[in-house]
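Methods: holo model generation. Sequences were used as deposited, without trimming of termini or removal of tags, and paired with ligand SMILES retrieved from the corresponding compound records. Each pair was processed once, and we did not select among multiple samples. The sequence and NAP SMILES for this entry were:
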Amino acid sequence: MDVALVTGASSGIGLAVARRLVEMGYDVYSYARDHGKTSFRHARFHPVDCDVTDTRVLLERTEALLRETGGLKILVNNAGVGFFGPHATMAPDRIERMVRTNLVAPMVLTRATLKHLEKSRGFVVNIASTAALNPGSFGAAYGATKAGLHQFGQALFSEVRKSGVRVVTLYPDMTRTPFYDQADFEPGEDPDAHITPECVADAVAQAVDQRDGTVITQIVIKPQRTQVVRKGPSQKEMD
Ligand SMILES: NC(=O)c1ccc[n+]([C@@H]2O[C@H](COP(=O)([O-])OP(=O)(O)OC[C@H]3O[C@@H](n4cnc5c(N)ncnc54)[C@H](OP(=O)(O)O)[C@@H]3O)[C@@H](O)[C@H]2O)c1
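and the model returned the structure below.
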């Protein structure tokens, strides 16, 4: 049985990816802090309590998982947080949380699983963001974590490609998920103005379904049009 590990599969994109991989026949493990957020249950879906910012716990859980499964085919580095606003007012603990969750954890977890991925000629799938490619105002620290993940993925592939490991980086644009619950803006409701977690899951499925020898290294996913809606009593569109 092929095994996949998806971080942050309690919600949004990670959950959609986990569901898709279960449909494809994978045994899927999820690391998150609160799997109570999802009602998804399946014999091949294994929720594991793990705060990925706690490196000691992350490594312990991963060692136990690899002992139990004996191998790993796909690692999806998806868990992430985003805080937005003027950098001058960004709380330092929020900056630290973004760096730890979005960048440190993927690098540590990749390090912890790489030998197994070499053995299985498996995949590292990183969920970055269009923010990695298009720097914008009010998301400097978030964009920096995603640009770091982008850079990590490109460099890692050149390092491990000879050993058969495939490294795929996805760059989704605004996707309708609980990611925006704490933000003062969100993607527009118009179906043309956002992408869905299932669109990202489709892209992951396509990337891991390639013939041996071909690697889809980067996938950028954008809605047809851009529409960002400012939350609040007077909802305002910010095209
Ligand atoms: N939504 C977008 O527009 C968008 C666009 C581009 C890229 N992305 C990226 O896509 C990824 C998933 O985001 P999403 O939109 O699906 O948001 P989401 O619905 O808020 O999901 C975030 C996931 O990350 C997990 N997570 C956060 N901190 C964690 C921690 N310390 N330890 C373990 N798990 C943690 C959460 O689980 P718990 O809270 O249960 O721990 C949750 O499952 C993120 O990396 C995000 O940056 C999102």
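The chain has a mean pLDDT of 96.
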